[in-house]
From TrEMBL:
Stretches for region Disordered: 216-245
Signal peptide: none
InterPro entries, per the entry: 6-blade_b-propeller_TolB-like (IPR011042), ARM-like (IPR011989), ARM-type_fold (IPR016024), Class_I_gatase-like (IPR029062), DUF7133 (IPR055557), Galactose-bd-like_sf (IPR008979), Glyco_hyd_98_carb-bd (IPR013222), Membrane-bound_put_N (IPR013428)
Stretches with biased composition (Polar residues): 221-235
Pfam families: DUF7133, HEAT_2, NPCBM, ThuA
Residues covered by the Glycosyl hydrolase family 98 putative carbohydrate-binding module domain: 322-453
SUPFAM superfamilies: ARM repeat, Class I glutamine amidotransferase-like, Galactose-binding domain-like, Soluble quinoprotein glucose dehydrogenase
Identification of the protein by name: NPCBM/NEW2 domain protein
Gene3D superfamilies (alphabetical): 3.40.50.880, Leucine-rich Repeat Variant, NPCBM/NEW2 domain, TolB, C-terminal domain
Length: 1052
């Protein structure tokens, strides 16, 4: 369609408002819906455009909005919408065989396709002006979920039972000539590769723009894999055109009874209609006979659109009866829970005054959904009277106040609340709401009551799963007086499910533990303001000794505090903390000065925000490896010494990222010089918020491996086993926000990396699935921990009674769990164990072989000659750490045919503090830019007089297009910026003004670079964007050279 142009506006409502939409013939909206729909706050602004005849197309979640004003607008503009508690969102294969005589149907052939096809939409009365385009009969299994805002209701069940046809796409005519189109598919972005699926949408866009749809419909070339994966919150698996499904092994949840908390027998005495800002007085009157009830439980749940600013008040609550009238606020509750903040008498959940509809509440109780407050009833009272209303603390919030909606309920006993998200909560049905990735099988390894709310796991050399089990988190602190626990779960009969549970340690000193790392008979536990080393001295699986490795860490009871430790191939420990961690102190509370001579504290000297560390097993020789992250939840390391982690954005900005941690890098969460946040204006800032978020326009910020959109990233590991070869050498990662455990298939990209996503286990139907960690077992299978909760983030915890572990095996595997037997006492046996994909097994092997010294050399050299570069690297690390073997081992490593092993050799040489001539000089012209990247990083630590000339030689190989290489050059030169820059200028002479040369000048912190910035900016052909880029570089300089350069630029 050559006469059409499309402008894409990302990340919400356009900054210019409706001005950006004035010339649009049609507007296509593909966004989050419900209470978060981007159009909800802009109905009045958009109405004139709709009245003027602009078209509107809403896709998938974009067809869901709120009943009331937004819903009425959608009925007018597109003819229908998804209404909570009326419409449903199952995944199913829809067969479309008959199409109406309508322009949108032109050229569309019968097709069937699996998607999250919403149906039972709320349409205009009598379908007035609405033409169904895609219609089908949903199968009965679309009704298998229990009733819920999105999963089922009596009306839709009746419609499906009666065989009523459902409409998944429709066209609508508006009074005045405007046109609209609703399309409920589009959850699986790779479905756009289907030509008929795509043609329906393209035809609709043309039709709503008042264009002429060709007789054969609008045709386009098949989208590429890259196009299908672009601009997604949840990128597609690597095979996009066909959705491959794995297998669910159900026997593990039926062969043996898995106990679950019994359902409450509470009787519901009252349930309100949804209360929202459209409700008169934004409240509902409550007058409930209590009969012979002995207890009173007040509950607040969301109204069906998720927990969004659902601040709620029980206003003027009182008991009435023969004994008179008593304010409920005069009684002490026996139970109180709030989804945000705290339950408070006389104040709202956030601690502010109680106000409903702008009016003060004389007395009452403030809370936030989901909430339960319980009382024992005194004698002489048989009625409960109150008002239930939305507190202004929620409704006044611009981001979500308009979508606040709750329901108030009264019970005679502690209830089990139904929470939006769909699906059964029973452990025996835990797999029902999950999708398993292609070629994989999933089974339940353990479930409540064997464990509750796992935040982190590890797997020891015996195949046992160690669990950080949390109950005492934030508002629930003290709920379990004995403290939180470190559990050991074991499958003793090899059937693939845990059958024994042991408590390794319990105490309030580890409340809310965020990490466990098992090292033989020891476990490192990260909790609160300390890192503990717990030792089992007598082999009874109970901790006998407790030592402190680190202390003084901020962020107790905070998700952004200290996280888990990981054992590296170099015999060292790797760990991190988020931006609440603040600082590290030793076991005695003394500040730690790291190997670079800097105090480890977030004070921009130079460190700030979240950080990554490496140290010896006893905590000594600590190094700070990277900084300026937000909440880097966990770090992992591969066999070559490559470091990887994820990092969370400021929630809601779709900027979750995966990082390769190039050592000594700044990762851009805050401004390097000022500490300002990403929202602060700065020269040349990105228009795209997810990129702006990490200061990626600034010189001195290491690029991201991958940005995955919105989320709450958690555990990460590297898979180096054989059982699941599709993952070998790649990253495995959990993201609790979008309910998914994924693999990142990493590939080289010049001096850095890029990655594609492959999903492993996804909570497509069960939105309580909150994967918190993934680990590799000794047999090569995976274990995924599931925190299992209705919400994520905001320091909330809505469920205290559940937690699961899932096991992932190949699809043809019998799901048995057979842990190999290891011989750590002999060199051949320990070398064999060193090949295992499990970190704890490799720790045992490493310690044994290291203790053997040169007696293990023969066996290790055999492994170092393996065809597998992963095995070679592991052997070389050990050989290099053997007394007297370091220099020759580095020489062996840097001559390896695999660049990953050569990089490993460079890293080993740095740890051994070898001379640059021993490992940098031979590799200065290495064909791999990744190897040269590691050389540049290595130069940072050296005081050799040869650093500038070596750096200049590396710098002359920059191609002007490789940000990874450029930042490595910056890392390597920053501490000797003047000398390195001068050496490079001497090397290139007058040929500095190239794309590569301008890059180096932009990144350099040498004062002399400012004069060259002036020369670049004086180029009359320099684009406006490049002018901003080079002007920004001045912000990272100071001193007289900068002042002189700026004066010259001004002609002064």
């Amino acid at each position: 369609m050559p006469d059409y142009t499309a402008e894409v506006i990302q990340n919400g409502w356009p900054e210019a408002g409706t001005e950006a939409l004035q010339d649009a013939d049609t507007i296509v909206v593909y966004c989050d819906g419900g209470g978060r729909h981007l159009l909800n706050p802009h109905i009045d602004e958009l109405a004139p455009l709709m009245k003027a005849g602009a078209g509107l197309v809403c896709i998938h979640y974009g067809v869901e909005t709120l009943a009331g004003k937004p819903g009425d607008a959608f009925l007018d503009w597109i003819g229908g919408y998804f209404e909570a508690n009326w419409s449903v969102n199952p995944h199913w294969v829809a067969k479309y065989e008959i199409f109406p005589d309508h322009p949108i149907s032109r050229g569309v052939q019968p097709f069937e396709i699996n998607d999250e096809w919403y149906f039972h939409m709320r349409f205009r009365d009598g379908m007035d002006g609405v033409t169904p385009i895609l219609s089908a009969h949903p199968p009965e299994d679309t009704m298998r979920r229990p009733d819920g805002p999105h999963s089922g209701n009596p009306a839709v069940r009746k419609a499906v039972a009666n065989g009523e046809i459902q409409h998944m796409a429709w066209a609508a005519q508006r009074d005045g000539g405007g046109r609209g189109f609703g399309f409920t598919g589009g959850h699986f972005h790779w479905n756009w590769a289907d030509p008929n699926f795509r043609k329906v949408m393209l035809n609709a866009i043309v039709w709503t723009a008042h264009g002429e749809v060709p007789a054969a419909g609008v045709s386009t070339e098949d989208p590429t894999q890259e196009q299908l994966e672009a601009n997604q919150d949840e990128p597609n698996p690597s095979i996009a055109k066909k959705e491959k499904k794995g297998k669910k092994i159900m026997r593990t949840v039926v062969d043996r009874e898995v106990a679950t908390k019994p359902k409450s027998d509470a009787k519901r005495l009252f349930l309100s209609d949804p209360v929202n800002k459209k409700t008169p007085g934004i409240s509902v009157a409550i007058d409930v006979p209590l009969g012979d009830a002995k207890q009173l439980f007040l509950a607040v749940t969301d109204g069906g659109n998720g927990y969004s600013c659902d601040w709620a008040d029980w206003a003027e609550p009182r008991l009435v009866g023969p004994a008179g009238e008593m304010k409920l606020t005069d009684l002490k509750w026996k139970h109180a829970s709030s989804g945000f903040g705290q339950v408070r008498v006389g104040k709202n959940a956030g601690g502010g005054p109680l106000r409903i509809d702008g009016k003060a509440v004389p007395y009452g109780i403030g809370t936030h959904a989901p909430s339960v407050i319980g009382f024992d009833l005194p004698a002489g009272y048989d009625r409960f009277v109150a008002r239930g209303g939305l507190d202004n603390g929620g409704t006044d919030q611009g981001s979500c106040g308009g979508s606040a909606e709750v329901r108030f309920a009264v019970y005679d006993k502690m209830p089990t609340l139904e929470v939006s998200g769909g699906g059964s909560r029973e452990a025996r049905e835990a797999l029902d709401g999950l999708d398993v990735g292609g070629d994989l099988a999933a089974s339940v390894f353990a479930a409540e009551p064997q464990l509750l709310s796992p935040s982190n796991i590890d797997i020891d050399h015996r195949g046992r799963v160690w669990v950080c089990e949390i109950v005492n988190y934030r508002k629930h602190k003290g709920k379990r007086p004995e403290g939180d626990r470190i559990l050991i779960l074991e499958d003793t009969d090899g059937d693939g499910m845990a059958d024994t549970e042991k408590v390794f340690y319990q105490g309030d000193d580890i409340d809310s533990p965020h990490g466990v790392c098992v090292l033989g008979n020891k476990a490192i536990v990260s909790a609160g303001d300390k890192v503990f080393l717990l030792t089992d001295s007598d082999g009874d699986d109970k901790a006998d000794q407790k030592e402190v490795l680190f202390s003084g860490i901020s962020g107790s009871q905070h998700d952004h505090g200290i996280h888990a430790f990981t054992f590296g191939p170099d015999g060292k420990l790797y760990f991190n903390f988020g931006n609440a961690g603040g600082q590290l102190k030793d076991k005695d509370g003394k500040p730690i000065v790291d190997a670079a001579g800097n105090e480890v504290a977030a004070r921009r000297k130079p460190y700030q925000e979240g950080m990554v560390f490496r140290c010896n097993l006893d905590g000594s020789e600590l190094e700070t490896l990277g900084w300026n992250f937000r909440n880097n939840w966990m770090v992992t390391v591969d066999s070559y010494g490559g470091i990887w982690q994820s990092d969370n954005d400021d929630d809601g900005n779709k900027a979750v990222r995966i990082n390769y941690v190039m050592e000594y890098g700044n990762y851009g969460y805050k401004d390097e010089k000022t500490g300002a946040g990403w929202k602060a204006d700065r020269t040349g800032m990105h228009t795209d918020v997810p990129l702006r978020h990490w200061h990626l326009n600034d010189p001195g910020v290491v690029p991201n491996l991958l940005q995955t959109g919105a989320g709450s990233p958690t555990g990460i590991t590297v898979y180096e086993g054989d059982l699941l070869p599709m993952f070998t050498g790649h990253l495995l990662h959990c993201d609790a926000g979008p309910n998914v455990c994924r693999a990142y298939i990493v590939s080289d990209d010049k001096a850095g990396y890029t990655a594609k996503i492959r999903e492993i286990l996804t909570g497509s139907q069960d939105k309580w699935f909150r994967p918190s960690d993934v680990k590799v077992a000794p047999d090569g299978s995976l274990v995924i921990a599931d925190w299992y909760d209705p919400g994520v983030g905001g320091h909330g915890m809505g469920d205290l009674d559940r937690g699961r572990l899932f096991r992932i095996t190949p699809i043809k595997h019998d799901a048995s769990y057979k842990v190999p037997t290891f011989d750590f006492d002999t060199a051949p046996g320990a070398v064999e164990a060193l090949k295992n994909p499990n970190y704890a097994v490799r720790y045992m092997a490493w310690q044994s072989l290291h203790a053997m010294g040169t007696d293990a050399n023969s066996e290790l050299q055999k492994l170092a000659a393996s065809k597998n570069p992963i095995y070679r690297a592991r052997a070389l690390w050990l050989l290099g750490k053997t007394d007297g073997q370091g220099k020759q081992t580095v020489a062996q490593a840097i001559e390896d045919s695999d660049p990953n092993v050569r990089m490993m050799g460079v890293r080993l040489a740095r740890q051994l503090d070898l001379e640059l001539e021993d490992f940098v000089a031979p590799l200065l012209r290495d064909p791999s830019p990744q190897v040269r990247r590691e050389l540049a990083v290595a130069l940072r630590e050296s005081n050799s007089e040869k650093v500038p000339s070596m750096w200049a030689e590396l710098a002359t190989q920059h191609d002007g297009k490789d940000r990874w290489y450029l930042e490595a050059l910056g890392v390597g030169s920053d501490l000797q910026a003047d000398a390195c820059f001068d050496a490079w200028i001497k090397a290139v002479g007058d040929d500095w003004n190239t794309p590569a040369g301008r890059d180096i000048i932009w990144r350099s912190r040498a004062p002399a670079a400012t004069a060259y910035l002036v020369k670049i900016l004086q180029d009359p052909e320099l684009s406006e964007a490049d002018q901003a880029r080079y002007m920004r570089a001045f912000d990272f300089h100071e001193g007289p050279e900068k002042e002189a350069a700026l004066l010259k630029l001004l002609g002064l």
